Each structure stands twice: as structure tokens, then as C-alpha cells.
Amino acid sequence: MQISVLRRILFIFAIVSGLLLNARVGLAADEEAFSPVSGNPVAPKLKLHDMDGKLVDLKQLKGKVVIVNFWATWCPPCRAEMPSLQRLWKKSGASKIQIVAVNVGEDADTVLGFMGTLDESPTFPIVFDKDSATLRAWPVRGLPTTFLIDKKGHIAYRAIGGRHFDSPENIRFITEQSEGASMGK
């Protein structure tokens, strides 16, 4: 019983933190999309099911640059940046990068309802962290938080708050990372 209450408190804290952060940050089109993560830590475990029940395991994506985006449908900046992630995905393609969107605390029906409001639904994997266990294992500082995982499986960069991931600067930066440029360390 106490663990359940603690989970709820932590989840509410994450939500409130994200809302406060996003109220201040918004979609930061003119800002650098990613900031370096000191220490280049190994990415925590991410092994979740997508909408079709297929298991997506970050370990299986080692050797590719992976964008991991933590988001929820109730989060305005998350909703606003989702189309830019899809445009990035279309421009870059699975041969260069992988995108995994981790929905936090919601069910497939809620996410599908949101996807129906978009001009183009995302074609990259959307996985479900229903109990927020994955969120708690990662250094998430509010929603949305996005990580750039290098080819060796380390967290190289993080973006807190909404971004335009398909801006020319961000596409160039992400392409450089996928083509083997130094991860800035």
C-alpha cells in the first residue's frame, strides 16, 4: 500500500515538474536541441511493448544513434513536438537513426486518440511505460525529456522541454552523430 502511494506521489511530482518546466521553456526552436550529459553514462534499461504488443529493447538498437523521447498526451509541449519527431524520422530514416517515444502512464486507447488528431501519425515505435518504472530509472527532469543515445549505448545528450527536432540545425546535428562524428566528449 505505501509503495503504491509513493509511486503516485513521485508520478505527480514528475508531472508538476514537467508542467512548470514546460511553462517556462515551451518549444525552444532557436535553442540548441541537446545539451551534453556529463560522464557519458550507460543508458538505463528500456524494454517495453509498443501498441502492437511488440517488445522494443534498447539493447537491440546498439550500433545506432537512438532518440529516446519521454512524453504524455496531457503535456502540451509533448503534443507540439510529436510532429517534428515524425518529420525528423522521415528525413533521417531508420537506416541512420532510431526514435523510440516512451509514453508515460497512459494506455493505448488514449495514445491512439491523440494520434488521430495529428496530420500524420508517427511511424516510429511508441512504447508504454504504464507504471513509470522506466521513467524513474532514467534521468528525466520533466516531460518532455529527450535523450540522444550514442552508438555504444551511452547517454550523450539530453533535451528538457519541447523542441523542433526537424529544424535544419537539429537535423544536421543528429545526422553528424549518426555518421560517426564525435559525440562531443
Task: Describe what you observe in this structure.
The chain is of the alpha/beta class and 185 residues long. The chain has helices at residues 2-25, 76-92, 108-115, 133-137, 168-178; strands at 35-36, 47-49, 55-57, 65-71, 97-104, 126-129, 145-149, 155-160. A 6-stranded mixed beta sheet has the order 1-8-7-4-5-6. Strands 2-3 form a two-stranded antiparallel ribbon. Helix 3 (108-115) links the parallel strand 5 and strand 6. The protein is globular and about 40 Å long.
Structural class: alpha/beta
Helix content: 25-40%
Largest sheet: 6 strands, mixed
Distance between the termini: 44 Å
Per DSSP, the total helix count is 5
Shape descriptor reads globular
Mean model confidence by pLDDT = 86
Strand segment tally: 8
User: Could you give the order of strands across the largest sheet?
Assistant: 1-8-7-4-5-6
Order of helices and strands: HEEEEHEHEHEEH
Low-pLDDT residue spans: 18-30
Strand content: 15-25%
Q: What would you report as the Rg, rounded to the nearest angstrom?
A: 15 Å
Question: Short description, anyone?
Answer:
Helix content is 35%, strand content 21%. The protein has 185 residues and is an alpha/beta fold. Strands 1-8-7-4-5-6 form a six-stranded mixed sheet. A two-stranded antiparallel ribbon has the order 2-3.
Write the layout of secondary structure elements.
Blueprint: H1 2-25, E1 35-36, E2 47-49, E3 55-57, E4 65-71, H2 76-92, E5 97-104, H3 108-115, E6 126-129, H4 133-137, E7 145-149, E8 155-160, H5 168-178
Parallel strand pairs: 4-5, 5-6
Antiparallel strand pairs: 1-8, 2-3, 4-7, 7-8
